[in-house]
Write a structure and sequence with these properties.
440 residues, Creatine Amidinohydrolase, Chain A, domain 1, Creatine Amidinohydrolase, 3-stranded antiparallel β-sheet, 13 helices, 18% strand, binds glycine, binds manganese (II) ion, Creatin/AminoP/Spt16_N, manganese, Pept_M24
């Protein structure tokens, strides 16, 4: 398996602390365990910010960073070892493991946090936290602050400033390191294999979930703990539902199937969409729509490079899709006017992509000072244009209705332009038909 190395977590903590104001403290909680039903838990997924700074995979933990502190800048509160609980739920790092394996300078039992943390906060001017994203933790934080305030008459100094940590941390997360790209390439590689498998397995008479099973098998076999988001397997008219997740309809001869799915490796997402004919052969209408979406994606790739801004790729897809729809007679009028009036949105109603990283819709600002962000080396994003012709669209001939096509790849900005991470799954009509024919 490919993981983020321990040294990188150290580097990230140091980089964050270097940006924090003097005499400040940052406090971040681990993700809570989510209950699925009664006493059954969801598979645990660490909070992305917490993971980014620690690699520590357990719940009930709190990271404390105190730049410049002589007795250690990185303190981790975590669960203690417990023979009885570990017999039922699995091993815990414990405070010793937190220091030995996860690089903490000091570690304390999470049960002692109310006694210890106010003392660590006391005397620091500023507290950095993800305010507003975890109501329960915000409440705890205020309790700890109030403990200090209650001792003010004894000379205790509560902090005066509370700062949102997101701004610093999320900007760091936007730029992917070499180690992060290695993990993202691995997630992409496994997800490509999964899409190929699903293409090969595609047959009329199966169900959408039959193809989802092929994806899950490849994800898990590749070492992914789970998909990066709920897989979308949408056949026929379901392909026009953008976030379709029912995945239980029949695959019918003559229909397209749209699959939007990617796995997660070491908390890094991949996000791929391919659309193909259930029976392995595109109809003329399906092909016509498909070729426009593919051309628009190619046009978008050409607009991804350092010094181009975030929206240029989107604008390129809008241009190609609108012109293509006019050419097919699905839109009537002047291309520029149809773009200005946003008439294309009846068919292409989402944006061409989003940042990609630990979260599938990753953190990072899209605008800076009111202007679209300029792309820089190391930023990772998706490119995912689509055309969706509603089954109920009375303005177009019947033969077009219910066709939905999206093509989505993951890229990272390089010095020269961009590297496509998800090139391992066929995309042209000819390549898809050839792959499917060979599997019959
Ligand atoms: N799978 C979610 C997206 O493509 O944005
Ligand atoms: Mn996406
Ligand atoms: Mn997607």
């Amino acid at each position: 398996m490919i993981y983020i190395p321990k040294a990188e977590y150290t580097r990230r903590r140091k980089a964050l602390m270097a940006q924090m104001e003097p005499n400040s403290i940052a406090i971040l909680p681990a993700a809570a365990v989510a209950i699925r039903n009664r006493d059954v838990e969801h598979v645990y997924r660490q909070d992305s910010d917490f993971q980014y700074l620690s690699g520590f995979p357990e719940p009930e933990a709190v990271i404390v960073l105190m730049p410049g502190r002589q007795h250690g800048e990185y303190v981790l509160f975590c669960r203690e070892r417990n023979v009885e609980r570990e017999l039922w739920d699995g091993l815990r790092a414990g405070t010793e493991g937190a220091i030995r394996d996860f690089g903490a300078d000091d570690a304390f039992p999470i049960t002692d946090i109310d006694d210890i943390l106010p003392g660590l906060i006391e005397g620091r001017d500023r507290v950095y936290s993800a305010m507003g994203s975890n109501a329960e933790f915000d409440r705890h934080l205020m309790e700890w602050i109030n403990v200090i305030r209650s001792k003010a008459h004894l000379g205790a100094q509560p902090p005066n400033e509370f700062v949102a940590l997101d701004h610093l941390l999320h900007d760091m997360r936007l730029y992917k390191s070499a180690a992060e790209l290695k993990v993202m390439r691995e997630a992409a590689r496994i997800s490509c294999a999964a899409h190929v498998k699903a293409m090969q397995a595609s047959r009329a008479g199966l169900h959408e979930f039959s193809l989802e099973a092929e994806l899950d098998y490849e994800f898990r076999k590749g070492g992914a703990k789970m998909p990066a988001y709920g897989s979308i397997v949408a056949a026929g008219r379901n392909s026009c539902i953008l976030h379709y997740q029912q995945n239980d309809a029949l695959l019918k001869d003559g229909d397209l199937v749209l699959i939007d799915a990617g796995c997660e490796i070491d908390c890094y997402a991949s996000d791929i969409t391919r659309t193909w004919p259930v029976n392995g052969k595109f109809s003329p209408e399906q092909k016509a729509i498909y070729e426009i979406v593919l051309a628009s994606q190619e046009a978008a790739f050409a607009e991804i490079a350092p010094d181009k801004h975030w929206n240029q790729a989107h604008e390129a897809t809008v241009q190609v899709i609108t012109a293509g729809l006019v050419k097919l007679g699905l839109l009537q009028g002047d291309v520029d006017e149809l773009i200005a009036s946003e008439a294309y949105k009846a068919f292409y109603m989402h944006r061409a992509g989003h940042w990609l990283g630990m979260d599938v819709h990753d953190v990072g600002e899209y605008k800076v000072g009111g202007e679209w962000r300029v792309l820089e080396v190391g930023m990772a994003l998706t490119v995912e244009p689509g055309i969706y012709i509603s089954p109920d669209n009375q303005n177009v001939a019947k033969k077009w209705r219910g066709i939905g096509v999206r093509i989505e790849d993951d890229v990272v900005v390089t010095k020269q332009g961009c590297e496509i991470l998800t090139g391992g799954v066929p995309k042209t009509v000819a390549d898809i038909e050839a792959l499917m024919a060979a599997a019959r």
